[in-house]
Every structure is written in structure tokens, then in C-alpha cells.
Design a protein that fits this description.
Structural class: mainly alpha
Radius of gyration: 44 Å
Shape: rod-shaped
Helix content: 40-55%
Strand content: under 5%
Length: about 130
């Protein structure tokens, strides 16, 4: 016979309930273990918040270095274009860096005199000047 509750009553037998408390405990433990594993991965594991923060700071540093390199590259590109475009830039660079002069030019080198250069004296342990003798 069946009654309205969905349990079947047989003569002398007790109906077995589908509710099993041990099964719910096992399910709760499994869910807690899964939650703990996900929390571990969030805070400590691969792709954690600390690692994301570290990668973002590295990205900022790399962006700064790239900006410096980009500016340097643009300056070098402008210098290359200037050297390709005219003779004046290459001549000025040769004069400044290598001391080159034209064939019909006269080069004068001025050396500072003794009175314009400051005298360098060293003192020994007794306080006497080494240049004084």
C-alpha cells in the first residue's frame, strides 16, 4: 500500500528513508575541501593575487624602460636622418669628435699658462708642502 507521503508500508516492515545523514556529511566535507583548494590557489598558488600584483609592477617598470628606449631610438633616428640629409652634420660631427680640419684651415691649439692654472700642492704628514722642498 502506498500512502500520500511516497513511502510504502508493507506488513510488519518499516519504510526506509532516503535521507542519509552520513552522505550529507561526506558531501559537505568534499565541498569544504574544494573551497579550501580554490582559496589556496587564489592566495598562494599559480596566478595568485600576489603574483598578479608582482607582474603588474614588472609591467610598469618595463613600460618605463621601453619609453626611455623609444625616446633614445627616436633621437638616434633623427640623428641618422640628419647625417643622411646633408654634409654639414657629418662635417660638424667629424670636427667635434675626431678633431678633423679642412685642408686650407689653420688649427690653433691654446694651452693654459702656468699662472692661469691653479697650483696643486700636496702636504705630507708634518704639514709641509711637498713642492716647497
Amino acid at each position: 500500500m502506498r500512502d500520500g507521503t511516497g513511502t510504502q508500508k508493507l506488513s510488519g516492515q518499516v519504510a526506509v528513508s532516503r535521507y542519509n545523514p552520513n552522505m550529507y556529511r561526506v558531501a559537505a566535507i568534499v565541498l569544504l575541501i574544494m573551497l579550501a583548494g580554490l582559496q589556496y590557489r587564489l592566495w598562494v598558488g599559480d596566478g595568485s593575487l600576489a603574483q598578479v600584483y608582482h607582474l603588474e609592477s614588472m609591467r610598469g617598470q618595463i613600460a618605463k624602460v621601453n619609453a626611455r628606449h623609444r625616446a633614445r631610438n627616436e633621437a638616434m633616428q633623427a640623428q641618422i636622418e640628419n647625417l643622411k640629409s646633408g654634409l654639414g652634420a657629418s662635417e660638424a660631427r667629424a670636427r667635434a669628435e675626431m678633431g678633423m680640419i679642412k685642408p686650407d684651415e689653420t688649427f690653433f691649439l691654446t694651452v693654459p699658462g702656468k699662472e692661469s692654472a691653479p697650483a696643486q700642492t700636496t702636504e705630507d704628514a708634518s704639514g709641509r708642502s711637498a713642492n716647497a722642498g
